[in-house]
Amino acid sequence: GELLRIAWADLVAVAEAVGARLDLDIRWQGERIDRLLDERHSATADVLVGLLRRYGWMAEVEVSFAIYAERGSIDVVGRHPLTRMIATFEVKASIGDANQTIIGVDRKARLAPEIARERGWVCRGVARFLVIADSTTSRSRVTRHAEIFGTAFPLRGRDCVAWLRSPTTPPPSGLFFVNVPNDHTTGATRQRVRRSAVHRAAPSGTARSGEP
Q: Please, what is the angle between helix 33-54 and helix 187-195, to 10°?
């Protein structure tokens, strides 16, 4: 009966002292949070793929790789047939650890030329993008770590979309938010959302820009 009186940090400390890990399982309306995040992640990737195809890119999802000791997958890889540019997209339903997020994006972009070679794709350059489902919480986290995200992803919002519409060299590193429908959105509304999906991604104090 004393569990509610114990601070979460104390519980974590006790678990770590014996080499264990303490997990917190949160449910919302009967669903596990990780299930909800997976659905939001998929919805975000779906909006992104639609955007890429609209601008003449070929999109590949969950592109797996096994290069030496490095294994994993890239959420979305875009290939532009005219310019032969490659773009890697890390899709996030929400932002957690800023440093780990940036490390993941950098790692996949670094491996992209080799992944392209293995698949027979011509690669003139690799752009890297972090794409985040739009929410107040995620925007706040990006703003809170503005220096880190600003250094890793100098291109934002409207400028990211402009580059995707007309890729040029050098390939950029950018961050933008997309608006995704929720579970109760109707099919007609989903299409309206998809057409105006790219939203502004500038941190606090910087003009926010959206898709024209």
A: 60
Assigned token pair, 33: 């949070």
Rg (CA), the chain: 19
* pLDDT tens digit sequence for 70-120: 999 999 999 999 999 999 999 999 887 889 899 999 999 999 999 999 999
Which letter does DSSP use for residue 93 in this model?
S
Determine what percent of the chain falls in helix, strand and coil, rounding each to the nearest 5.
40, 25, 35
Q: How far is residue 209's CA from residue 190's CA, in Å, rounded to a whole number?
A: 22
Calculate the dihedral angle through the C-alpha atoms of 90, 95, 99, 100, rounding to the nearest 10 degrees. -60
Mapping DSSP to helix (H, G, I), strand (E, B) and coil, where does residue 47 land? helix
**Alpha carbon separation from 209 to 3, 97, 120, 124 (Å, rounded):** 47, 25, 36, 28
Q: Two tokens at 91?
A: 């899709």
Q: Flag whether the pTM goes above 0.90.
A: no
**pLDDT tens profile 9-45:** 888 888 889 988 887 655 544 434 454 558 888 999 9
Q: Find all residues with CB under 8 Å of 136, minimum gap 6, and list them.
A: none
Residue 102 in tokens: 């940036």
What whole-number distance in Å separates Cα of residue 172 and Cα of residue 189? 32
